Model the fold of this input.
Amino acid sequence: MSSQPYYPDADDAYSQYHGRSPYIPHSTAAISTDSHEVKASYDDLIDEYASPYTANARHGTFNVETQHRRAASLTKKSYADVDTAAAGYPPGPSGPEPPAEPLWKRILPDSVACRLYVLTVLVETAIDLAVESELLLHMHRATEQIESSTGQNIGSADTKKMSVYLSIFVLAHVFQFAMAVDAVAARNTLQFISLTAFNTVFLAYSIIQIGEVRETLSNIVTDTGTGLSDIPINVLTTITPCVVGAAELIFILLGWKIYHEFGWKVYKFLGADRRIKKMYASYQIYDCLIKFDVFFWAGFSVQFIVLVLNTNDWEFYVTCAALPLSLVLLVEGHLAARHENKWMMATFMSGCVGAMIYFVYKLTKVLMYRNTEFQFVWRSLTVFSIIAIVFLLATFVYSVIVMRNFGRGLKDALVRKDNAHQRFGSTNQHNRMASANPNRMSID
Done:
């Protein structure tokens, strides 16, 4: 019988290992390697790692101080007097709601740049109103004095026209102030830019007004004695462009700051959705066009009623009735876009078409009879009618754009904006109730 080579198996190697191990007794290591049915016990491995540390195990113990130490600069505070009975979750019923803030606090802007802007518009409006009122008073008192002394009616078309122009200039300043407050309250960047351009038109008109007022009033108004003050007319006509120019410079300086501030405030409630932001930009343009339509419609109607029409003319009563109806139509257009009402928007668009036909008819009539019936007022009526037609065309185009955006999420974004604006400045009585425990952290 041939001999076969011997190869140690795993059990043999394991037995030889334990035979040399100083941790295993000799009797345990003397296990027969011929028996393949007996398996080695692994309890010795468990005993090896479960045995306690010895002196030569090269392990040491360290005393670790577990007491929390405070910095030397901090003083220990006792919380024994803290009343934690009210702490708990969920919070209890809230107390009475705080009183609503007054209207002027909600309108007053919360930033320095916006406050300076509104203050500048207010000062400009106050000074220009005082100057224009003084010019009107000069003219009327001088006319009354001359008529009472001579017994003749010297009221001419020029004086009547100048009275209307000065009155429209006053109304334009009041309109500008109202639009400025509305632009700050609504965070309307486009409206702020439009008002800056509108103030530039004021500057140009105030410069042109210097020569017209001096020429018209030089024959009937003396420099002193006919107004509330002794300021000469030449000085009064010079004050207005200086004030408007200074205000325009301040608007430009504040423009960059207000532009970025409005953009950030709009971003906070619209988010980063470019689609919503694009729809909101169209909505702002549309809303701004409607507001300027109010001024140019009213300005044209007032000039036409006072300077052209007579009380015995049927067109006088039609124009007087059309003025408030046109204002109601513009309000309807604003509400239609705000509440996304297609029927109201369709009615408003039909009214815009009718208004364009009306202004085209008036413009044609003014140009046809500019040498007879409209000799003294055809220039201003032409300017107002052309501007009104241009604004109506733009309003009609943007009304179509806004109506196409109905139902795409802009209405919900505007509702969130209004709700956030109503909650601004309010206090919650129980928003910190669960944080009364001084050892807890709260993210408020």
Notes: The radius of gyration is 43 Å. The longest helix spans residues 112-150. Residues 111-270 form one domain. Residues 26-36, 423-444 have pLDDT under 50 and may be disordered.
